[in-house]
Amino acid sequence: MKKFGLALLGIIAGITILGMLGPLGGLLFSAAIAYAGVHFYIKSDTTFAKVVWALVAIAAALSTIANFPGLLGLAAIALLVYVYKKGDWGTRKKSQTKKTSNDPFQNFEKEWHNLTK
Fold this sequence. Notes:
Blueprint: H1 2-19, H2 21-43, H3 47-66, H4 68-86, H5 104-115
Helix pairs in contact: 1-4, 2-3, 2-4
């Protein structure tokens, strides 16, 4: 039942991500502009450049906040990653391999065979 719940949660998160691709793109674009504004604000030397880049960063930050559905999409991505890591999807139980014996005669035969190759 736990796997069914995780699978259902993953399907819902996947549908949410697909529905939020547009706002996620807008969020990514505005966050990149905000990052560039902060980066160039730190690098600039003149007061005029600092004011311009601060205004660019503030406008992009407001645009990022306005993309609230994109934040829901990010939460859905985080949920999908959690579901993938929590469930053991695609992992198979390791088959038991042949155990090596501690018998000195069998180990000697194996080593002798390796030496004479």
